[in-house]
Structures are given as structure tokens and as C-alpha cells.
Write a structure and sequence with these properties.
By secondary structure, this protein is of the alpha/beta class. The chain has helices at 21-37, 53-65, 78-84, 121-132, 187-190, 198-212, 221-232, 242-245, 254-257; strands spanning 42-46, 70-75, 92-96, 109-113, 140-146, 152-159, 162-170, 249-253.
């Protein structure tokens, strides 16, 4: 019997070690309780690229939240799966596939990093819906984009019912201003960073808060970031607190940044 053709197209395959560390640490911290509640905490690393380094790292970081976690790496390019197979171990496997997710059951986590940037904006919603439809009831899809060495990263977190939050994360010493993160907005938002769109207004306000927090810069970039994010909280529905802000993160309710219709 011929297997159905995987759904999707290959990515460029860039897989520098530690590229996704900011996303992984956020997942382990925020989604850890759900992993620990699960009878079988299974995660999917969708489109891991030309080498399996980030998939191995995901397993290691999730196991800091729950040692029972298992990870399945999925790639649409069969030669990438063949190259990854020697790295399989207990709790880690690799499979050929795409958005159809050739895994059994309902994963508790799907990570899709740097996968959708090559697609058109109007294709994103259908992919999100397809992937969210495979999640466990308390599962999470994390989809976003980062630079080649993981200094700047923006991702959307979605549950079975759709998008929930947007997280901005950075190595703070690399930022001149928060709007530098605009170039790493996920596909659903990157073309919406224009006047009249909520994400543009958010980044504008973030830059203003960052400028106002300049007196804290001599203390550290971290202290300046915490002060600026605290100012943002007066006008924007942030969903995290200083514990995450100290990590160079800020998470915003999706509804506040969702693209305007049209």
C-alpha cells in the first residue's frame, strides 16, 4: 500500500545548536504542569531541519519539566530523517511526514519553529487549524520564528481552540530597541507591522517605554527591559510576570495583537 504524500514543503533546514533555547525554556516553564498531568507526555518537533540538534535539545529541556517526556521529530525531507535516525534513543524517534503528523494519538505539544515563514500569510490559519486539531485537550502548539543563532525570537502559542498568546524573547544585549524583534514576527503577523495594525501599535509603544526606561540602562539591559515591560502592562494585556520578564521575555494576549480584518 502506498503511503500518502506528506503535506507541506521542505524548509531551508538551518539547525544551529541552541537556536531554539528561548522557546524551549518557555515551553518547559509554562507548559510543564500540563506535561506532568499527562499519562503520556508526547511532543512533536515538526520540521526540525537538516540536522536533529534542536530536537535532541527539546527532549533534554522538556525532561527538566517531566522525565517521562517523549519527542518525535518529523521531517518532510526523507534524507533528513535518515540522517537523524542514528540519534534515536529511548524517548526520541524520527519520522517522515509533514502537517498530517504521522504519530499515534494526540500530542501534548507541537513545536513548529521556522516552518511557516516560507508560506503565504493566507495559508497560516489552515495550517494552525490542522495542527491544533491533532492536539490533546490540554495540548499546545508553539509556532514562531527566530534568527540563525537564537538571539531574537517571536512565537504564537495555540491550544485546540486557536491562538492564545504571542511571546517576544531576546538576548537583551543584542537589542537597540524592542522593535528590532519585528523582523522575527511569525508569518501571521510579519506583514501586519504597519500603521493601523495592533502589532505595529504594540511595538511602537514598546519602543517608547524602552526609551523612557533609558535611565535604567546603566544597571543592565535586563533592568531596562523589566522597567519598560512594566510600563507596557498599563495599556496592554500581558499574561506573564517579572519571573519571565527577567528572562528577556514578554507575553501578550493574542486578541490584542491579532491582525485587523481585510
Amino acid at each position: 500500500m502506498t503511503r500518502p504524500r506528506p503535506v507541506g514543503t521542505p524548509t531551508r533546514g538551518t539547525t544551529n545548536p541552541n537556536r531554539l533555547r528561548r522557546m524551549d525554556r518557555w515551553i518547559a516553564a509554562v507548559h510543564g504542569p500540563a506535561l506532568r498531568r499527562s499519562d503520556r507526555p508526547t511532543a512533536v518537533d515538526l520540521g526540525y531541519g537538516a540536522a536533529p540538534w534542536t530536537t535532541l535539545e527539546l527532549l533534554r529541556r522538556l525532561r527538566t519539566a517531566d522525565p517521562r517526556c517523549e519527542v518525535v521529530g518529523i521531517e518532510i525531507a526523507p534524507e533528513r530523517v535518515a540522517a537523524a535516525r542514528p540519534y534515536e534513543r529511548e524517548g526520541l524517534s524520527f519520522r517522515h511526514g509533514g502537517f498530517e503528523l504521522p504519530v499515534d494519538g494526540e500530542p501534548l505539544l507541537i513545536r513548529a519553529a521556522n516552518v511557516l515563514r516560507q508560506y503565504e500569510e493566507d495559508e497560516v490559519t489552515a495550517v494552525w487549524e490542522r495542527l491544533c486539531g491533532r492536539l490533546a485537550p490540554d495540548g499546545l502548539l508553539v509556532e514562531g520564528t527566530c534568527d540563525e543563532i537564537g538571539r531574537r525570537h517571536v512565537w504564537v502559542a495555540l491550544g485546540p481552540g486557536g491562538p492564545r498568546t504571542v511571546t517576544f524573547a531576546a538576548r537583551l544585549g543584542s537589542l537597540e530597541r524592542p522593535s528590532d524583534l519585528a523582523e522575527r514576527l511569525p508569518k501571521a503577523l510579519i506583514h501586519r507591522n504597519v500603521p493601523g495594525e495592533p502589532v505595529h501599535a504594540f511595538l511602537r509603544d514598546f519602543d517608547r517605554a524602552w526609551a523612557a526606561a533609558a535611565p535604567y540602562a546603566p544597571l543592565s539591559a535586563r533592568q531596562r527591559w523589566i522597567r519598560a515591560v512594566g510600563e507596557l502592562a498599563a495599556d496592554w494585556p500581558l499574561t506573564d510576570d517579572r519571573r519571565r520578564w527577567r528572562q528577556g521575555e514578554v507575553t501578550v494576549n493574542w486578541a490584542a495583537l491579532a491582525p485587523s480584518r481585510g
